[in-house]
Amino acid sequence: MQSFLEKIAAEVRPRAAEGTPAQYIPALARVDPTKFAIALMTAEGEEFVTGDADTPFSVQSISKLFTLALAMEWVGAPLWERVKREPSGMRFNSIIQLETENGVPRNPFINAGAIVVTDALMHNRPTIEVGFRNQMRLLARDETICYDEEVHRSEMLTGDMNRAAAFLLKAKGNLTEDAILVTNAYFHFCSLAMSARQLARAALFLIKPQHGDAACARGLHAQRLRAIMRTCGLYDQSGEFAYHVGMPAKSGVGGGILAVNPTMGYAVCAWSPPLDRYGNSIAATEALALLAAKTGV
Ligand SMILES: NC(=O)CC[C@H](N)C(=O)O
């Protein structure tokens, strides 16, 4: 596996030149585009890594997987009255459907849906940012995980589309808390900095129940979460990714893609900052495609 990951890395790294790191968040535009990592964790606890696997990067929308997992634990069924489980076929930050579909976002992995999930998590929990970070520390078994305050500030300065979504949700009666406070918490979740190794470790609960105190570690909702990853995990490229790669996955505009293979029993995170026009990492997608082909997905 180790030499195979190194071969994949050598093959796909040049593909990064075809894209650019996210430009609309200035702190992400400054990230070194040549960074690259793959980290693979097996259900049995073996770890294989290559490249910059211990360099923290901005998890961005990968946080939506973990906020949803928490909300399924903490909020349960009422969550699904506020957000649907359908692919949107639209860009991740689009608010068009929100207007025509009465303020109920298509799924929890587009921005509007994740803002509803954030609102649900915040309810009666004033320190949700600390709570979420602590859950991630427990899942990844790593106390060093922190928010990147520079990325957070950068998103606060440029996050008007997300504030627009939050105010629309509020106007349609689908936001309980203050729209500005909810988006600030959402920006914090997105600004969490984690390495590929930490993310792959944190995702193991999706293929095998884990010990520990993290709320979602028992993996009670793992199969449902994988279904939503499969259908909505890469925004309006989810169908293409399912065809090309085949693993349930979640991407972020920091250039990370976190995927799981329940049949073979591993979680894997690939990272390369340059993105395609959908906002998904080009080299990370290709790395996962080669891995999937090799491991019989
Ligand atoms: N696709 C993403 O990773 C988007 C997350 C980003 N924080 C945003 O709200 O635009």
TrEMBL record:
For the ligand (substrate), the binding residues are 61, 111, 155, 162, 186, 235, 253
Gene Ontology molecular function terms on file: glutaminase activity
Ribonucleoprotein as a keyword of this entry, yes or no, is: no
Identify which top EC class this enzyme belongs to. Answer: hydrolase
Q: Name one GO biological process term.
A: glutamate biosynthetic process
What is this enzyme's catalytic activity, as reactions? L-glutamine + H2O = L-glutamate + NH4(+)
Keyword check for Manganese: no
Q: Which InterPro entries match?
A: Beta-lactam/transpept-like (IPR012338), Glutaminase (IPR015868)
What EC number(s) would the UniProt record show?
Answer: 3.5.1.2
Q: Which Gene3D superfamilies match?
A: DD-peptidase/beta-lactamase superfamily
Q: Which domain of life is it from?
A: Bacteria
UniProtKB keywords: Acetylation, Hydrolase
Instruction: Note the subunit structure.
Output: Homotetramer.
Q: What family does the Swiss-Prot or TrEMBL record give for this protein? A: Belongs to the glutaminase family.
For this entry, the protein name equals Glutaminase
Q: Identify the gene encoding this protein.
A: glsA
